[in-house]
Amino acid sequence: MTLFSTVSLFISLSLLITLILALIVITPWLRAKQLRAKPVDNQLLDINVSVFRERLAELKTDKDSGVIDDNHYQNQKLELERQLLSAQHQTSQMIPPGIKSRLIIAFWVPVLTALAYLLIGDRTPVFEFWAGQDKVGQVADDLLTGKIDGPPAWAIEDDGRQLITAMQANVHSHADDPNRWMRLSELFLSLESNESALEALSRAYRLSPDNEEIATTYAQISFFANNGQLDPASRRVLQDVLAKNPQHEGAQMLMVMGESRAGNFAEAQSWIERLRTSIAAKPGDHSHALASLDELTANVTSQQQQASQGIDVDITVNPSLLPLIKGDDTLFVAIRDVNGGPPFAAKRLPISIIQQGKATVSLSDLDAMMPERTIASARADNVQLAVIARISHSGNAGAESGDLSGNPVVINIDQNQVNVEINQQVP
Predict the structure, then answer these.
(1) What is the DSSP letter of 384?
(2) How many CA atoms within 13 Å lie on the side-chain side of 215?
(3) CA-to-CA distance for 372 and 170, rounded, in angstroms?
(4) Cβ-contact 284, 253 below 8 angstroms
(5) Going edge to edge, which strands form the sheet with 311-317?
(6) Contact (Cβ atoms closer than 8 angstroms) between residue 188 and residue 197
């Protein structure tokens, strides 16, 4: 919406409000003229007068027939007159105001409306938004529709804030266009705002689930946003892509990385073989790509060997704590020195990995936070290791009040399996 159209809308609404209020104020004035031409009947006064006359006639009859004496008659007559006077009321006609008063009302209503609009709150952001729409609104639309590949230099002044705001407003004005959401996600990625990019991609995917580019990009960003883990949503997206196009190399590569990261090395090797078959079947020289797959196979094999020397952690959550778990919680599992210090291996996992209060997590040198600080090096130095598990509500690595945790479990130098129970809440 441009500045001109917004001002026009404001003026139109002000005039409409003025007209409504004017009708409310002027209608009684118009009625006043009719009332002055035709005074209102005071029916209550007429009834009182009629009753007074009937009662007076009855008193007169009683006096004439000797039922009451003259003194009683005079007292009763005086009381009736008093009651009639107390019930009587005068109606005064409303004097309609002149044309001057009406013009004053008609003038001040829009003036006061405008003053209220300007003075109630700070409208600076609104005016800046309007100015930005006038300046870069068309550029934002051209970027989102693919008419131009990049913005002109003058459109990204002041760190490009006006252009970013205009693009967001444009996308929300065309919320049913998946391509606009896709290009908005690219903007967020360039700003290193992965969460916003993922949200934009999820909207694009919901609008166009059959678009392979959108689907694979969504799965890829979700994969990296989850620290190299394929969550159920991204896994389902890739499976849908491969069901429609089994030879999609991008989806196959994501499955390789996801399965190897999850410790499913046999599945990862299987996807590598599918990639190899797909590439080899294409015409032309693909020796470089096939050599890269050989290196990937060797890497997965090495990871498998390291994982086999790791430690399997069986986690159980005490049933009394299950109601305290929230859908956006995070599970942290780590192996560290019993005396403290940085962990030798750690994993940050979505809470969905816990099913019916149980989960199994494998920790190995693949999960080392520093290349020189591994489980193998710790055992070679006879370091006493302990396993800890914690459910974080905030997602932060450090323990906070309200988190769920268990006592550290010490492991022997040759132990490769341990049970940990999350049975307490951090005070």
Answers:
(1) P
(2) 21
(3) 49
(4) no
(5) 358-363, 311-317, 417-422
(6) yes
In this structure, are residues 20 and 106 in contact, taking their beta carbons and an 8 Å threshold?
no
**Lowest model confidence (mean pLDDT) among 24-33, 67-76, 230-239, 285-294:** 24-33
End-to-end CA distance of the chain: 52
Judge whether 216 and 224 are in contact, CB under 8 Å.
no
Q: How far apart are CA 163 and CA 133, in angstroms?
A: 8
- Give the C-alpha separation, 223 to 238, whole Å: 11
Task: Give residue-wise pLDDT tens across range 364-415.
Answer: 988 888 888 889 888 888 999 999 999 999 988 888 999 999 999 999 888 8
**Which strand (E) or helix (H) includes residue 59?**
helix 43-64
Where b means 16+ CB within 10 Å and e means fewer, 260-290 reads bbebbbeebbebbebbbeebeeeeeebeeee
Q: Which of 34-43, 194-203, 325-334 has the lowest mean pLDDT?
A: 34-43
Alpha helix ranges (H) inside 151-264: 161-173, 178-190, 194-207, 212-225, 232-244, 249-261
Q: In whole angstroms, what is the distance from residue 115 CA to residue 256 CA?
A: 64
Q: In terms of DSSP H, where are the helices of 96-176?
A: 99-119, 124-144, 161-173
For 190, 196, 197, 198, 200, the CA distances from 193, given in Å and listed in that order, are 8, 6, 6, 9, 11
Cβ proximity of 144 and 180 under 8 Å: yes
Q: How far is the C-alpha of 231 from the C-alpha of 350, rounded, in Å?
A: 8
**DSSP 8-state symbol, 180:** H
Mean residue pLDDT of the chain comes to: 82
Angle CA(175)–CA(127)–CA(192) in degrees, nearest 5? Answer: 50
H/E run at residue 410: strand 409-411
- Please tell me whether the overall predicted TM-score, pTM, comes out greater than 0.85 for this model: no
Per-residue DSSP letters for 312-377?
Answer: EEEEEE-GGGGGG--TT-EEEEEEEETT-SS-SEEEEEEGGG-BTTEEEEEE-GGG-SBTTB-HHH
**pLDDT above 60 for 41:** no
d(CA 224, CA 403): 25
Identify the three-state secondary structure at position 22: helix
DSSP summary character for residue 387:
E
CB 216 within 8 A of CB 251: yes
Q: How many residues does the chain have?
A: 427
